[in-house]
Amino acid sequence: MRHVSMYADQPSCIELHVQETVRIDQLHLTADGYIAAQHGALLAPGVTRVPLDQGIYHFRTLEDAQLRVIAGGVQVASTSTKDKDPLPSATNLDRAAAAVIGEAVASRGQGPCGRVPALRVVDATEGVL
Question: Which of 41, 45, 39, 3 is CA-nearest to residue 20?
Answer without folding.
Answer: 45
